[in-house]
Amino acid sequence: MQNQIYPCLWFDGQAKEAAEFYCSIFQNSKITSENPLVVRWELNGQQFMGLNGGPLYKFSPANSYVIECETQEEIDHYWDKLGEGGNYSQCGWLDDKFGVSWQVVPKILNRLMADPDKGQRVIEAFLQMQKFDIQKLINA
Predict the structure, then answer these.
(1) What percent of the chain has a predicted confidence (pLDDT) above 90?
(2) pLDDT band at 34 (very low <50, low <70, confident <90, very high)
(3) Is 88 exposed, middle or buried (0-12, 13-18, 19+ CB in 10 A)?
């Protein structure tokens, strides 16, 4: 059952370039197969497929990929690398240079928001952020 379900991302002739870009950012990643129409790759064991489908469809934030990070260094790494050439948004969201949306979030975020004493302050704090700052969330 592992990886029986995986995303297929529709690119306008950039599937291999995108696969190489993502594999350069995530550890334990590799391109597993390619042909002129389809490129398959793994990011930390998660399969992806890129389809060179042409200009008909575009990405939107309605579909995004969440990266849960243990440390601020991880957040900084993914935020800087994935956002390079793309667009940064609020609350840990960014669109990479291909238009794919990502959410770069601290792993502890849900626990902090669920805290009955400070959850609302944590939410108010992160609504003011673009890139998440773990220490500011903890201190909220």
Answers:
(1) 97
(2) very high
(3) middle
pLDDT confidence band for 4 (50 / 70 / 90): confident
Range of the domain at 46: 1-57
CA end-to-end span of the chain: 41
45-65 pLDDT, tens digit each: 999 999 999 999 999 999 999
Residues 64, 128 within the same domain = yes
3-state class (DSSP) for residue 116: coil
Count of beta carbons in the 10 Å neighbourhood of residue 26: 19
**Tokens 């243990």 — which residue?**
70
Tell whether 121 and 107 lie within a shared domain: yes
Residue where the block lists tokens 């003011």: 128
